[in-house]
Design brief:
- It is a single chain.
- By secondary structure, this protein is α/β, with parallel strands linked by helices.
- The protein is built from 12 helices and 12 strands.
- β6, α6 and β7 form a beta-alpha-beta unit.
- α5 packs across α6 and α8 (about 185-190) packs across α9 (about 210-215).
- The longest helix is centred in the C-terminal third of the chain and has 21 residues, at about 280-300.
Length: about 300
């Protein structure tokens, strides 16, 4: 068991999973608000040997230096790479602190969001319609940029409805190409498709003015990433041209701290995370507990 486990902010665990934490630590403290600064983070952690956090707080070197008892950090949010993580993983590694994160827990809701908003826009079920006549997804040319788990799931869902699918990623995916999801270099993909869906990791900015120029006009863009995948002035310039429409679920995915673009006529941002569903919280909770059990077993603490 851990001696003391502290969740320094809300971590979205379901009540039964919160209760289960007491099986893995002699003392459990769960904070229900986000710490304001490093000093507050350090005070909350104190002498804890295990820390849990979500995506809204960053644990940097200052925090890790000030809390020498930490042995385990559980990220109750996606961990794709050290570069995109909200924990200073290189410093944690140097201090022999284990950092586990989770992934693939909210993707189903994201896929449903893309399908829902695209169908509404194509058919004119809301107050906007893409073409003069309602359109089906059938034969619609769609490009997926970033073919990880959520990108693959989105591609499969769209393909099931008859879309003509293309993708770009840093590495080729032969198994997806075998299912007729066709690879194109990014510039060629953007000039080919009518709809582009960005499914990139956090902190990856791939869409600059050059990419929007390749995408052209009368196009549709979805950003399903946690943060912006675009350069904001370049997006704004693209939106001022003819018939372009941008969709995202959260303000973070829009990436505009000024609030200017939120009211733009061609920006469609719901302001809520499509991945935060009842089922996603169940999956998140299970994965967080599995990580804790794995650490305790590997270190002979169970």
């Amino acid at each position: 068991m851990f001696k003391k486990l502290v969740a320094i902010e809300p971590i979205s665990l379901i009540p039964s999973a919160q209760q289960k934490l007491h099986d893995y630590a002699k003392e459990v403290i769960l904070f229900d608000n986000i710490p304001k600064n490093n000093l507050e983070i350090i005070q909350r952690i104190g002498d804890a040997d295990a820390v849990l956090l979500s995506y809204t707080t960053y644990m940097d070197k200052e925090v890790l230096d000030a809390c020498p008892n930490i042995r385990y950090i559980g990220m109750c949010c996606s961990l794709y790479s050290a570069q995109s993580a909200n924990v200073d993983i290189p410093t944690a590694n140097a201090k022999n602190i284990t950092v586990y994160g989770i992934r693939d827990y909210g993707d189903q809701g994201v896929v449903e969001y893309v399908i829902s908003e695209l169908v509404r826009y194509l058919h004119g079920f809301g107050d906007k319609q893409w073409k003069a006549l309602p359109m089906e997804i059938t034969d619609l040319k769609v490009g997926i940029v970033g073919l990880g788990t959520s990108g693959q799931m989105t591609a499969v869902a769209l393909q099931a409805l008859g879309a003509d699918l293309y993708y770009y990623s840093r590495t080729r995916k032969p198994e997806e190409e075998a299912r007729n999801i066709k690879y194109l270099p990014l510039k060629e993909l953007l000039s080919t498709v009518d709809v582009v869906c960005s499914c990139l990791n956090k902190n990856v900015i791939l869409f600059h003015e050059e990419q929007f120029e390749s995408l052209g006009n009368n196009k549709i863009m979805f950003n399903t990433s946690i943060g912006p995948s675009h350069d904001l002035p370049a997006l704004e310039k693209w939106l001022e041209k003819g018939g372009n429409e941008f969709f995202c679920d959260t303000l973070g995915a829009l990436g505009d701290n000024t609030g200017k673009l939120l009211s733009h006529a061609h920006v469609n941002c719901m302001g809520v995370s499509s991945g935060r569903t009842k089922q996603a919280f169940d999956r998140l909770s299970e994965k967080v507990l599995d990580n804790i059990k794995l650490f305790l077993k590997d270190h002979g603490l169970n």
